[in-house]
Design goal:
This protein has 203 residues and is α+β, with helices and mostly antiparallel strands. Helix content is 13%, strand content 30%. Strand 5 and strand 6 form a beta hairpin.
């Protein structure tokens, strides 16, 4: 049975477990009457105010990070390096700013749309490998920030795709050297052997 994830699912206070559980779930967007979707194959967990890699570390609250303080179940989208939109799932309860970055999806629905948005065939893993590419392939930009993930513009479904523990790699997150010792935490999760996982993706 295919089910849209409920707000209760996102309000799980264990962001590490949630980041792992999101693997195999299907992320949808509905834009201008057109639907596209991809299977989530790579995530990173960000552990709120205690995580030196998190935008909310130390309780930081800015116009940008305020979305993270919402109750779980909304989109947090921000611009990285002035060019890439990155899509995050806000999780946990209100004022506990946990988030899961969606780093890669495997194209599933609306493949022609993805090809058009990315200017390349879906047979090329680069079409949706890496968080900026995944967001662009699905048409996600800053207008999706704060969108309800239980709504009809962006949502996630459970298609009963499950991975065994031995099929999931847990390793350090990418591009967060500034986080000092927290850069080494194994909070990046990806499906072993999936071609759409961003590099480095070797075990």
């Amino acid at each position: 049975m295919i089910l849209k994830l409920t707000p209760e699912y996102y309000q799980n206070e264990d962001v590490i477990a949630l980041a792992k559980d999101l693997l195999g779930k299907v992320l949808y967007t509905h834009i201008d009457g057109q639907i596209s979707a991809g299977i989530i194959v790579e995530t990173e967990a960000y552990y709120g105010i205690k995580d030196k890699a998190s935008h909310a570390y130390g309780g930081r609250r800015t116009n940008r990070t305020e979305t993270m303080y919402s109750a779980g179940g909304v989109a947090y989208v921000y611009l990285c390096y002035g060019m890439h939109h990155l899509f995050n799932v806000v999780s946990s309860v209100k004022d506990d700013p946990h988030a899961v970055l969606i780093r890669a999806v495997e194209p599933l629905i609306g493949k022609e749309l993805m090809e058009e948005r990315r200017g390349m065939p879906v047979s090329r893993p680069a079409v949706s490998s890496g968080p900026g590419s995944a967001a662009k392939a699905l048409g996600i930009d800053r207008t999706f920030n704060q969108k309800d993930l239980s709504g009809n513009e962006i949502w996630i479904e459970d298609h009963q795709i499950r991975y065994m523990d031995e099929e999931i790699i847990a390793c350090p997150r990418i591009g967060i050297a500034y986080a000092q010792e927290h850069a080494l935490l194994p909070w990046r999760f990806f499906v072993k052997g999936n071609p759409y996982v961003s590099k480095p993706n070797k075990v």
